[in-house]
Design a protein that fits this description.
With about 600 residues, this protein is of the alpha+beta class. The protein folds into 4 domains: about 220 residues, 2-Layer Sandwich (Heat Shock Protein 90); about 140 residues, Ribosomal Protein S5, domain 2 (2-Layer Sandwich), CATH 3.30.230; about 80 residues, Rossmann fold (3-Layer(aba) Sandwich), CATH 3.40.50.11260; about 130 residues, Up-down Bundle (Four Helix Bundle (Hemerythrin (Met), subunit A)), CATH 1.20.120. The chain has 20 helices and 23 strands. The strands form 4 sheets. A 9-stranded mixed beta sheet has the order 1-6-5-4-7-3-2-8-9, covered by helices on one side. A hairpin with a 2-residue loop joins strand 12 and strand 13. Helix 9 crosses helix 14. The protein starts with a strand and ends with a helix.
Length: about 600
């Protein structure tokens, strides 16, 4: 007897979105269902490598299509599903990605087709064209099959059933109103297979009517693209293979197709995506490269073939030197694999360096998607510094554009000791930093660090080609007028000591500034501890107690300082205290930090205004 069950809440929302045509390209449903069939065959094929008997003689893997009576049937002899797996994977799915998928879907109303493959919810695309979906499946090691039915209305039925052969059969009862958008006849299905599923490695068969007779026809080429000569492959073929295989809807940014012969033989077909995967920095993201041996699939997403900082790379490596039944543990010990790993890492980095040299504008497109991953390669492992430092680019005060570190070095003034940088949330906020004034006035170029990892990165690197990185908020900047300011400090030593005493719980030192021109005050980093920007980032990450060693610098040429000099001479300690507190809070605000006590600050301003 059939059991009636309700869909998971988020799945109901997803179905509603599908049925109400939020996708502009409904034809993708066939691509998704055929990919699921291919994946199911991959799984049984992989299991059979360890235990050939499980195939029970059914070893001609194929996907069959049938179109009749306004129904489209997709059938495979893959691994199949058990009763519980159908409920978990289709009925309720219970996957955290579904809610995220719907949120992104609503954000990307004009660009939704590229999202479906990223969240593994492709089965539901069937409801874009079907008013009712019936799924019959049998797992290879189960006695009974399972039948699942739904009209996409918030509920489904599920029952056990007799089924002789393993695999899955999906029957779509097509919506009558769908013909206005996509007319599903034999010609259209052939067109869709060619467009989306031509490189599926299993035959996709369908009875096609020719001259009044029905003939079984294979609709896809099944040829391994990576084994063809590069000269014979069009870019469109690479693009479609990438999108079909790796569930993306945007052409790849770059294609790397390379072959090696000799002591180790392999073919690698790698793709740099155009967009960062939505879940790339989440724990759920699974990186890795597919492994094949002589066109036979061995392993999905092998993580150790590329370093983690290149985890965004998708692709495959095919080598006759790989054993079909090799385990991940044995792969890690494989000398051949270590050579392949080293070679393809070098190939990817050389490709990126060439793009940077020949077309910096195009490289910026890559960098704005994956730059943080490259930076993390150095931050997490300093031995990568030499490999990756030439790939780093940062926004800069020079023409307000990106620059490489090499270009920065070439433009440095003769008397310049440091590579100067400024940190902030974005370029606009950095350009408002008071510390920037004198550095630019001295004619020094400043790199703009607006990614939270940047300052941590250069702390690890320390230098580039012998030039030390120096924050404009550092205590010692080596500016031209520093000697002159030191004389003024000696003359105002007692005033500075008094201000330091007033702010003793908040700053480690009070100095006159050689870097300020128009601003009255700023906070810089002392010789110990982290910067204020790093303190802010760590606070957001809940990684306190890490506090910046704050030094308060006051502009000796500003009217506020002249007022404080007068208050000090006249012994007006209360007013001097108020001005000191005001200057400190001003410095925090200019630094992008919140005042420690906003209420006290408001009252203090009111008090000084009314006097």
């Amino acid at each position: 007897m059939s059991t009636k069950m309700n869909f998971q809440t988020e799945t109901k929302k997803l179905l509603d979105l599908m049925i109400h045509s939020i996708y502009t390209n409904k034809e993708i449903f066939l691509r998704e269902l055929i990919s699921n069939s291919s994946d199911a065959i991959d799984k049984i094929r992989f299991e059979s490598l360890k235990n050939p008997e499980i195939l029970n003689g059914d070893n001609k893997f194929e996907i069959k299509l049938e179109l009749k009576d306004n129904k489209l049937i997709i059938e495979d002899n893959g691994i199949g599903m058990s009763y519980d797996e159908v409920i978990e994977n289709i009925g309720t799915i219970a996957r955290s990605g579904t809610k995220k998928f719907i949120e992104e879907l609503k954000k990307e109303e004009n660009n939704t087709n590229d999202l479906i493959g990223q969240f593994g919810v492709g089965f539901y695309s069937a409801f874009m064209v079907a008013e009712k979906v019936t799924l019959e499946t049998k797992k290879y090691n189960e006695r009974e099959g399972v039948i699942w039915k739904s009209e996409g209305n918030g509920e489904f039925t599920i029952d056990k059933t007799e089924k002789n052969n393993r695999g899955t059969k999906i029957t779509l009862e097509l919506r009558k109103d769908i013909e206005d958008e996509i007319k599903l006849d034999e010609d259209k299905i052939k067109e869709l297979i060619k467009k989306y599923s031509n490189y599926i490695k299993y035959p996709i068969k369908m009875e096609i009517e020719k001259e009044g007779k029905k003939e079984l026809e294979i609709l896809n080429s099944m040829e391994s693209l990576w084994m063809k000569n590069k000269k014979d492959i069009k870019k469109e073929e690479y693009d479609e293979f990438y999108k079909e295989t790796f569930h993306d809807w945007i052409d790849p940014f770059e294609i790397i197709h390379t072959k090696a012969e000799g002591s180790i033989e392999y073919t690698a077909l790698l793709f740099i995506p155009s967009k960062l995967p939505i879940d790339y920095y989440s724990k759920n993201y699974k990186r890795g490269i597919q492994l094949y041996s002589k066109n036979v699939f061995i392993m999905e997403k092998y993580e150790d073939l590329l370093p983690e900082y290149l985890g965004f790379i998708k692709g495959l490596v095919d080598s006759p030197d790989f054993s079909l039944n090799i385990s991940r543990e044995l792969l890690q010990q494989s000398r051949q694999l270590q050579i392949v790993k080293k070679n393809i890492e070098k190939k990817v980095l050389n490709t990126l360096e060439n793009i940077l040299k020949k077309d910096q504008k195009r490289y910026i497109e890559f960098w704005e998607q994956f730059g943080r991953s490259i930076k993390s390669g150095i931050y997490e492992n300093l031995t990568n510094k030499e490999k990756l430092e030439n790939l780093l680019i940062f926004k800069s005060s020079f023409e307000k554009d990106y620059t490489t570190l090499n270009s920065y070095i070439e433009r440095m003034k003769e008397d310049q000791k440091y590579i100067y940088f400024a940190s902030g949330e974005n370029v606009e906020s950095i350009e408002k930093l008071p510390q920037l004034e004198a550095v630019l006035d001295n004619g020094y170029e400043v790199l703009y660090f607006n990614d939270s990892i940047d300052e941590f990165l250069v702390q690890m690197m320390r230098e580039f080609k012998g030039k030390e990185f120096k924050s404009i908020s550092s205590n010692d900047l080596n500016l031209k007028n520093e000697e002159e300011v030191k004389k003024l400090e000696k003359e105002n030593g007692s005033l500075l000591e008094e201000i330091k005493e007033i702010l003793k719980e908040k700053v480690s030192e009070v100095k006159l500034s050689s870097r300020l021109k128009t601003s009255p005050v700023c906070i810089v980093t002392g010789n110990m501890g982290i910067s204020t920007n790093m303190e802010k980032i760590l606070k957001e990450l809940d990684q306190l107690p890490f506090k910046a060693d704050k030094v308060l610098e006051i502009n000796p040429n500003h009217d506020l300082f002249k007022t404080m000099e007068e208050l000090h001479r006249n012994g007006e300690k209360e007013k001097l205290r108020d001005y000191s507190e005001l200057l400190y809070n001003q410095a925090l605000i200019l630094e992008g930090l919140k005042p420690e006590n906003p209420t006290e600050l408001v009252n203090l301003i009111s008090k000084l205004i009314t006097k």
